[in-house]
Specification:
46% of the residues lie in helices and 16% in strands. The protein is α/β, with parallel strands linked by helices.
Length: 246
């Protein structure tokens, strides 16, 4: 079993879905988890983890707020003395065909999904470089690899994470820090449950494994990349999509 005992991990967008599953699985593997989301939204995640015997705390973090990333990282290091794992998971969608897409919707998606990862990663690298070790994991999407009509903003942000992670990986590899990407396919979350039953079946039919993924499928990939077992893997995209895009 992957052992993350003694590691400190910050997970953004940890209030539900994939982020919540990542936080829970990291904690189950022994990590001290800092679950981050807007307001008090991450509190239930932290409470569930501690009730199950894990170590977790909730922090309020609006990843789009100027200076918030730096403050959040500084607070984690001040309290725990280290930051070993950063999971850039926070993300939103504002779907629309490009000809109808508002500039505000483009800016909001890029700001939350990509620019926030830049700010958090930049802040996290300072303690990681000092420690000469660390794991940075960005949650992208199959859409960032294949594209999808009506999601030009979302696809651009998720594709941007891939180029971002590969570039940073080259910059920090010599200091023992790895930077990787997990690219989920269609995952069974609140967002996908909102699809009509027919659309849900249509999507599932496109997946060679003939099922939607689960948040735990993504969390397992993140735990692997955060572990010592993945110490020689960096700058890579781990597609967890059931064969939906190869």
């Amino acid at each position: 079993m992957i052992d993350l005992t003694g590691r400190v991990a910050l997970v953004t967008g940890a209030s539900r879905g994939i982020g919540k599953a990542i936080a829970a699985k990291l904690a189950a593997r022994g990590a001290q988890v800092v679950a981050a989301a807007r307001g008090e939204n991450a509190r239930p995640t932290a409470d569930e983890i501690t009730a199950a015997g894990g170590k977790a705390e909730a922090v309020a973090l609006d990843v789009t707020e100027s200076g918030a990333a730096e403050a959040a990282i500084a607070a984690v290091v001040a309290k725990h003395g280290r930051l070993d794992v950063l999971v850039n998971n926070a993300g939103i969608t504002k779907d629309q065909l490009l000809l109808r897409m508002k500039r505000d919707d483009w800016d909001a998606v890029l700001g939350t999904n990509l620019t926030a990862a830049f700010a958090l990663t930049q802040a996290a690298l300072k303690p990681m470089l000092k420690a000469r070790q660390g794991r940075i994991i960005c949650i992208s999407s199959v859409v960032g690899q294949s594209g999808n009509a009506g999601q030009a903003n979302y696809a651009a942000s998720k594709a941007g994470l891939i180029g971002f992670a590969k570039s940073v990986a080259l910059e920090v590899a010599s200091r023992g820090i790895t930077v990787n990407v997990v690219a989920p396919g269609l995952i069974d979350t609140d967002m996908t449950r909102a699809l009509t039953e027919g659309a849900h079946g249509d999507w599932a039919a496109r997946i060679p494994l003939k099922r939607l993924g689960t948040p735990d499928d993504i969390a397992s990939a993140v735990c692997f990349l955060a572990s010592d077992e993945a110490s020689y893997i960096t700058g890579q995209v781990l597609a967890v999509n059931g064969g939906m895009y190869m």
